[in-house]
Amino acid sequence: MPTVLNTLILGSGPAGYTAAIYAARANLAPVLLAGHQPGGQLTITSDVENYPGFPQGVMGPEMMEKFKEQAERFGTVVHHNVGTAVDLSKRPFTVTCDDGQVFRTASLIISTGASALYLGLQNEKALQGRGVSACATCDGFFFKNKVVYVVGGGDSACEESNFLTKYASKVYLVVRRTALRASKIMQKRALENPKIKVLWEQNVTDVFDVAAGKVNGVELTHTTTGVKQRVPCDGLFLAIGHQPNTALFKGVLNMDEKGYIQTVPGKAATNIPGVFASGDCQDSYYRQAVTAAGSGCMAAIEVERWLEAQHDA
Questions:
Q1: In a 3-state reduction of DSSP, which class is residue 15?
Q2: HSE on the CB side for 90, CA within 13 Å?
Q3: Catalytic pick from 139, 234, 280, 283?
Q4: Residue tagged active-site, from 47, 97, 135, 209
Q5: Read out DSSP for 239-299?
Q6: CA-wise closest residue to 60 among 160, 149, 128, 122
Q7: Among 34, 77, 144, 190, which residue has the least CB neighbours within 10 Å?
Q8: Catalytic site residue 281?
Q9: How confident is the chain (313 residues) per 10-residue block, as mean pLDDT?
């Protein structure tokens, strides 16, 4: 491995692997750090049916394994460790990993993604992909004529509830307060939709049933009285927000108030020349595998051209 890499990619979701494929085909010999969750959020998604080229659908983990194989086929070196510290104050940039290994690189592509916020329930993780989801756009199709519960009171919760009515027979929106935080127009759409029923002053405090291997009910707890009730359902959707995995770059790269990395409009470049961002770590709007992959392609092409410009200079 060279002393200084042409490019180092942090993250192994659709954005990171696509960046690796394009960078490798450009003979940049990229190195990719797979991170805490190799494959990203798709590894906890069961069936992916909305990614072009898979007419019969594909399992999320299988899809990410194919991305990895394709990146490695062209020469990408994948390391299964995690970047824990960066120095972007001078070039070459340095990234230190959890195992003490230090990488020096002429350019950096950040594809660390974002993590959906969950309730922290004991059964929640075990039932991810088995009825528990944080993406209605990804998984709503699987709940045709089913009863689902959505947790949240903001725009995302209202939007996801409305989207789910295309498939579900009934959508219950669980709101812990006495009012929605969503914009007026989103509130209006949710409150006027006959297939949506809002449950005020309620929290989901458990989800069942791990033994059955799928969601078949949730426990609701009233926020003021503490009264609990178990209700049957087929799915639980969390719409309480996402957290971009960008803490490593706080105070170093320009970010918005939620921590998403800000890039040059229409590009992957950040405020530091030679540092690029792609995927969900810089996209709070679309959050889809196909858009993440597209932005990974953008980042790799920009890296190639940026490196050429440095060489010419």
A1: helix
A2: 0
A3: 139
A4: 135
A5: -S-EEES-GGGTTTS-B-TTSPBP--TTS-B-SSTTEEE-GGGS-SS---HHHHHHHHHHH
A6: 128
A7: 144
A8: no
A9: 91 96 98 82 72 90 93 96 95 95 97 91 91 89 97 91 96 96 93 98 96 95 97 96 93 96 97 97 91 97 96 65
